[in-house]
Design brief:
single chain, 171 residues, alpha+beta, three-stranded antiparallel sheet, 15% strand
Length: 171
């Protein structure tokens, strides 16, 4: 029997935010790629890292006017430990605005060359970590910042290091 992997397209940006448009957005390929990378990170911020059997990746989608990218969940039910349904439900719900995952609205207009992409994404993640950081007493305000901060820290240690270099006070 052949192994069955199914996929779920999660979109390329929060549902109520403006997003890159083929034929309209300057540097569309670069901006769309950054947008999808940050949306993937935002989904991880709210849902946590994927459980075994689920992979979140950036997928290129061919269109008559060009290629655009979205976040896709690849799901192997054979590895479901019982956590897939609730994780997928959280992914499907997604977010309407960047701030729901702790992100300031990204300034995609600053991207002009592909060699800026990795730094742009890490900087946006570091910013989200600073936005969601705990107070000096260790409490999170709002309380919903706690899981977001912990999920981002666990999934993106390089961004956490950039946000809080050794010896820096996290607030």
């Amino acid at each position: 029997m052949a192994k069955t992997i199914w996929t779920l397209d999660l979109g390329g940006a929060p549902t109520n935010e403006d997003c890159a448009q083929i034929g309209h957005t300057p540097n569309f390929d670069l901006v769309n790629n950054a947008e999808a990378m940050l949306y993937r990170a935002a989904l991880i911020a709210i849902a946590g890292s994927p459980p075994a059997g689920i992979t979140l990746r950036i997928k290129a989608n061919a269109h008559d006017f060009g290629t655009y990218r979205t976040v896709e969940a690849s799901i192997d039910n054979d590895q479901d430990d019982g956590s897939h349904a609730s994780y997928i439900e959280t992914l499907e719900t997604g977010i309407a605005f960047w701030h729901q995952a702790g992100f300031a609205p990204p300034e995609f207009g600053k991207l002009t060359a592909s060699d800026q992409l990795a730094g742009f994404v890490v900087d946006a993640l570091a910013s989200a970590l600073r936005i969601t950081r705990p107070t000096s007493a260790g409490a999170f305000f709002p309380e919903s910042s706690g899981p977001i901060h912990r999920n981002l820290t666990a999934a993106f240690p390089e961004a956490a290091q950039r946000a809080f270099p050794e010896g820096a006070v996290p607030c």
